[in-house]
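On to our target:
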Amino acid sequence: MLDKVAKILKFIDLISEQTGKLTSYLVLIMVGFQVVEVFRRYVLEEPTTWSWEFVTLLYGAHFILGGAWLLKEGGHVRTDVFYDRFSPKIKALLDLIFFTTIFFVFAYVMTSKVGANALYSYSINEKTYTMWAPPFWPLKMVFTYGFLLLLLQGVAKWIRDLIFVIKGEQI
C-alpha cells in the first residue's frame, strides 16, 4: 500500500519540480526582453508599448509556478525561532496541524477563487488596461494551475508527514 502512495507522491513531486525548472527559464526570456527594450529605448529611441507589460506578465507566471517546487524543497520562508529546535517527529506533527488549519484553507480558497476568476476572465475575454491590451485570462489560467499544483504538493507533504508521525518512515 505504501508503495502505491509513494509512487503517487513522487509523481506529484515530479510535476512540481519539472514545472518549477521549466518556469525558471522564464527569467532568461524576461532578461532578454528587458535588454532589447533598453536598447530600443535608449539607443534607437524607439521604445515598445508592450515589452514592460509582457515581462510583468511573465514574472507573474514565474512567481506562481515556482511555488509548488519551492514547497517540495522546503524553501518557503518560515519563522523558525523554535521550530528548528524540535525533533523531526515533532516538526512533522506541527506541520500536520498547521497545514490542516492554515495552509489547506489558504490553498483551497486561492485555487477555487483564482480558478473561478480565470473562467470568468475567459468568458468575457478580459484584457489588461493598457494601450497594448493583451488578453489577461491566460495568465489567470496559469495562476490557477500554479495554486492547484501548490495544493497538490501540500497534500503530498501532509501525507508524508502523517506517515512519518505514525510509522516513523519517510517516503
